[in-house]
From TrEMBL:
Lineage, opening ranks: Bacteria, Bacillati, Bacillota, Erysipelotrichia, Erysipelotrichales
PROSITE patterns: PHOSPHOFRUCTOKINASE (PS00433)
Stated name of the protein: ATP-dependent 6-phosphofructokinase
Its biological purpose: Catalyzes the phosphorylation of D-fructose 6-phosphate to fructose 1,6-bisphosphate by ATP, the first committing step of glycolysis.
Free-text activity regulation comment from the record: Allosterically activated by ADP and other diphosphonucleosides, and allosterically inhibited by phosphoenolpyruvate.
Catalytic activity: beta-D-fructose 6-phosphate + ATP = beta-D-fructose 1,6-bisphosphate + ADP + H(+)
Organism (species): Amedibacillus dolichus
Length: 320
C-alpha cells in the first residue's frame, strides 16, 4: 500500500481548499500514510518546496479562506521535461502519489503526472463551478454567498437612487455564479455565456422595467469576460430612465471563511481521494453527484458535456 503522499493546491484559490488539505492529511495520517505539503502548486513540486504535514500543522484551518500551501500557475508544466523534474523531486522524497486540489487546468497536470508513474487524484477546488463532472466545486457556495451579500447591499442603494446596478461576477466563462446569485437576489436580468448578450435587447428590457413595470431599481448580474461593464453602465444612463452604475466584484469573491457546505464537501472529497490512493488508483477526480461522492477518470471528466442550465434559466425568467 502507498506509504507517502503529497498534497497541493493549484490554479485560482478557493475557500474550502484548507478544509480539503486538512481532510487529506488527517485521513491519510489516521490510515498510517505520511503526508507532504507541496507548496505553490506545480511550481513547488518542480522546485522541491515540499515539507511534511502533521495533524497539528493542519489544525485551526478548517475555517480559513485561501490555502496554507499557497497556489500558483506554472504554464511550463505542460512540458514533459519540466514534469520530469517534478517527478525526480517526488521520488527523492519517496512520495508515490499526490492529491491535486484545483480546477480543470490542474487536472490536466494531474493526468500527465499519473501517466508518468505518479498516481494523482484531483479534487475540484475553484469558485467557478466549471468542472462538468461534479454538481458543485469546493468554493462555489462560499463565493456565491459573498456575491449575494454584495448584491443585497447594492440593491438598497440602487433603489434609493433609481439606479440600474450592473454587477460583474467571476466564473471564467461559466455562468453559474451569475445565474445562481441572480436567482438568490431576485435580480432583474442575468447575462452569461449561455444567455448571450444583445446590448440593444437588454436596454429595451431596462426601459420596460422603468416605464411599464415602474421599478425603482434594476439589478443586472453579468459574468466576467462578456462586455466592458463601465461602458455598458454609461449606455444605460444615456438610453434608459435609470442611471447606470457598474460594480466589478473581483477577487473579493475568492476570499473569506468557507461556508459549512464547502467545509463538509471538502472533507468528504478529501476522504475519498485518500481512499482511492490507498487502493492504488490514480488518474481520477472526485465529484459530488446527487449528494454522492464518486470518482471519474480525469480523461472522461475533461471532455464531458455540461449539464444544461436551461431549467434554472427558465426558473429565473419566471421569477422576474
Ligand atoms: N495541459 C496541461 N498539462 C500539464 N499541466 C497543466 C496543463 N494545463 C494546466 N496545467 C497546470 O495547471 C495549472 C493550473 O491551471 P489553471 O487553468 O491556471 O487553473 P485551474 O486548475 O484552477 O483551472 C497551470 O498553471 C499548469 O501548471
Ligand atoms: O486570479 P487571476 O489570475 O486574476 O484569475 C482570475 C480567474 O480566476 C478565477 O477566479 C478562478 O479560476 P480557476 O479556478 O480556473 O483558477 C476565475 O473566476 C477568474 O477568471
Ligand atoms: Mg479553471
Amino acid at each position: 500500500m502507498v506509504k507517502r503522499i503529497g498534497v497541493l493546491t493549484s490554479g485560482g484559490d478557493a475557500p474550502g481548499m484548507n478544509a480539503a488539505i486538512r481532510a487529506v492529511t488527517r485521513v491519510a495520517l489516521n490510515s498510517g500514510i505520511e503526508v507532504f505539503g507541496i507548496y505553490d502548486g506545480y511550481k513547488g513540486m518542480v522546485e522541491g518546496y515540499i515539507e511534511p504535514l502533521t495533524k497539528a500543522s493542519v489544525g485551526e484551518i478548517v475555517d480559513r479562506g485561501g490555502t496554507i500551501l499557497g497556489s500558483a500557475r506554472l504554464p511550463e508544466f505542460k512540458d514533459v521535461e519540466v514534469r520530469a523534474k517534478a517527478v525526480t523531486q517526488l521520488k527523492k522524497r519517496g512520495i508515490e502519489a499526490v492529491v491535486v486540489i484545483g480546477g480543470d487546468g490542474s487536472y490536466r497536470g494531474a493526468l500527465a503526472l499519473t501517466e508518468m508513474g505518479i498516481n494523482c487524484i484531483g479534487i475540484p477546488g475553484t469558485i467557478d463551478n466549471d468542472i462538468v463532472c461534479t454538481d458543485f466545486t469546493i468554493g462555489f457556495d462560499t463565493a456565491l454567498t459573498t456575491v449575494v451579500e454584495a448584491i443585497d447591499k447594492l440593491r438598497d442603494t440602487s433603489n434609493s437612487h433609481h439606479r440600474c446596478s450592473i454587477v460583474e461576477v467571476m466564473g471564467n466563462r461559466c455562468g453559474d455564479l451569475a445565474l445562481w446569485s441572480g436567482i438568490a437576489c431576485g435580480a432583474e436580468i442575468v447575462i452569461t455565456s449561455d444567455t448571450g448578450f444583445e446590448e440593444s435587447e437588454v436596454l429595451e428590457r431596462l426601459r420596460d422595467l422603468d416605464l411599464i413595470k415602474k421599478k425603482r431599481h434594476a439589478i443586472v448580474v453579468i459574468s466576467e469576460k462578456i462586455t466592458d461593464v463601465h461602458q455598458f453602465a454609461k449606455k444605460v444612463s444615456l438610453n434608459t430612465g435609470f442611471s447606470g452604475r457598474a460594480t466589478i466584484l473581483g477577487h473579493v469573491q475568492r476570499g473569506g471563511a468557507p461556508t459549512p457546505s464547502d467545509r463538509i464537501l471538502a472533507s468528504r472529497m478529501g476522504e475519498k481521494a485518500v481512499d482511492l490512493l490507498m487502493q492504488g488508483i490514480g488518474g481520477q477526480c472526485i465529484s459530488i453527484r446527487e449528494n454522492q461522492i464518486v470518482s471519474v477518470p480525469i480523461e472522461e471528466a475533461l471532455v464531458m458535456p455540461r449539464t444544461s442550465r436551461k431549467p434554472l434559466q427558465n426558473l429565473f425568467e419566471r421569477l422576474v
